[in-house]
Amino acid sequence: KQVIKSCDKFILLATNKAVEAPWCNWELGFGDAHKFRDNIAILPIKDIGESYTDYKGHEYMQIYPIIRYYNGSEQYTDGSKVETGYYYSYYDDDGILRIIPLKTWLNR
Questions:
Q1: Could you tell me which residues are beta bridge partners of residue 101?
Q2: Which among 11, 14, 22, 76 is least buried, having the fewest CB atoms inside 10 angstroms?
Q3: DSSP one-letter string for the chain
Q4: Using one digit for the tens of pLDDT, what is the confidence trace for 46-79?
Q5: Among positive and negative, which fits the CA dihedral 93, 60, 107, 51?
Q6: The pTM is what?
């Protein structure tokens, strides 16, 4: 509890086994209560070819922002290219996907 409270950010490393463990949901809830949405992210670790949406039965995987890798083939809504790298991504209150370079988010 003290470590979660003392850190600026809370990142849940989400493997299949981790999200099935009872403590995982508890830690995420505790982090949520102390960090709020702007300082929480889920880092999904999946096998090659699997998506972060492949986690079954864990709705919080869809609620919280995730850290996601973009390979440079994606585009912003204005048509400009998303640079290759890791991003903090979330849906805003209007349902629009927002992405922030991970380094920028970590330094906030």
A1: 87
A2: 22
A3: -HHHHHSS-EEEEE-HHHHHSHHHHHHHHHHHHHH-GGGEEEEE---TT--GGG--S-THHHHS-EEEEE-S--B-TTSPBPPSEEEEEEE-TTS-EEEEEHHHHHT-
A4: 777 766 566 655 666 678 899 999 999 999 989 9
A5: negative
A6: 0.84
